[in-house]
Amino acid sequence: MVFSNKPLHFVIAIFVACLPLIGFSNPTNDSIPTATSQENTEESHSKSAHAAHAEPADLKSEIRAFINHHVLDAHDFSIFADEETGAHYGFPLPIILWDNGVQIFSSAKFEHGHAVAESNGNHYVLHHEKIYKTDASGTLTGDEHHPTNAKPIDLSITKGVLTIMVVAFLMFILFTGLAKSYARNGGISAGAGRFFEPIVLYVRDEIAIPNIGEKHYKKYMSYLLTIFFFVWFLNIFGLTPLGINVTGNIAATFGLAIITFLITNLTANKNYWGHIFWMPGVPTPMKFILAPIELLGVIIKPFSLMIRLYANIFAGHIVLMSLIGLMFIFKSWLGSSLSFLLSFAISMIEILVALLQAYIFTMLSALYFGSAVEEHHHDEAHH
């Protein structure tokens, strides 16, 4: 007699899926302890019940707060913190505010949001990584999440800004060395340049030339190379345990998209604008209908660049941190092991995504540049 293995596989799959819900190695004691005397039975029961209900909520809130802290920018560079002693290991960053003049002081004055900082008679408080003007006692008006206190113009060097400076300096050193190695070795790269040279050639031969054309690609190459390596390096820094999330910040991707938007439209030829405001080859009444649609497309293109990079990187960080948090929620050898394996697999995928998003941003930018400088010969086509 032959039995099908499909029902057996289904039962095993259900069993494995349910096992993470059961704790083995680190079971939590949710049972009510037995009181040793009749007088403290009710008190012990109420305390145990309260603890049993409060612990999961506190743990989930702590994980949620840690994820929010990881994906948001910060005014200091904290590597990690000791919850028992309250000590933070890292270094402060300069706070630069415009509030009736320039106010410059160290973020150490905030004591990680627990103290009021004073500068030239003005008092400021750090609340959810936003700086508000307050009094000496640190009073905030409004609700907890939306204070109504005045906010000075914040020009501080945050953790994200510092990372951008580090990446810019790193790129300057790497590619200056690559250029010098060409000059020293007669057009042959040396050192780290041997790794980056094929990537530079790929951006030129597979991204710039096919999308922009042999005639115009050179004037865009410097920007395309800069944006490719800049986004790639920032994405790689975001995968480190340092809590850096620059490209997952919509303000950063907005700035990159604006640069692409300005280059596209400032270098566009008359054919580009002619196809937007007076599209050739269509009836005249349709031109009035298509003109606002095409003009809207000019704005939508950089907007899609901004959202695509931001959403992919931000979502990747949230998924990865959530999977790591599941290790502490399951509290079982199997559940934590599965969460670890999933986190490891997602981390490997994120390394590929870091490169892929840099490629997509560069490819679409080159495509927009190509459409801006494309030459059309309608008169010759009709003959």
Explain this structure.
The chain has 10 helices and 8 strands. The protein is mainly alpha-helical and 383 residues long. The strands form 3 sheets. It has a 3-stranded antiparallel sheet, with no helix packed on it. The protein has a 3-stranded antiparallel sheet with strand order 5-6-7, with no helix packed on it. α3 packs across α4. The chain is globular and about 70 Å long. The protein starts with 5 loop residues before the first helix and ends with a helix.
**Strand residues, percent:** 5-15%
Q: What would you report as the Rg, rounded to the nearest angstrom?
A: 28 Å
* Beginning-to-end CA distance, first to last residue: 79 Å
Physical arrangement of strands within the biggest beta sheet: 4-3-8
Helix content: 55-70%
Shape: globular
* Average predicted local confidence, pLDDT: 79
Oligomer: single chain
Largest sheet: 3 strands, antiparallel
| Count of β-strands | 8
Total of DSSP H or I helical runs spanning 4+ residues:
10
Q: How does the helix and strand content classify structurally? A: mainly alpha
Key terms for this structure?
383 residues, mainly alpha, 3-stranded antiparallel β-sheet, 8 strands, disordered C terminus
Secondary-structure blueprint of this entry?
Blueprint: H1 6-18, H2 41-71, E1 76-81, E2 88-92, E3 94-98, E4 102-106, E5 117-119, E6 122-127, E7 130-134, E8 153-154, H3 159-184, H4 193-212, H5 218-238, H6 250-266, H7 270-277, H8 284-330, H9 333-373, H10 378-382
Antiparallel strand pairs: 1-2, 3-4, 3-8, 5-6, 6-7
What's a concise summary of this model?
By secondary structure, the chain is mostly helical. Helices cover about 60% and strands about 10% of the residues. The protein has helices spanning about 5-20, 40-70, 160-185, 195-210, 220-240, 250-265, 270-275, 285-330, 335-375, 380; strands at about 75-80, 90, 95-100, 100-105, 115-120, 120-125, 130-135, 155.
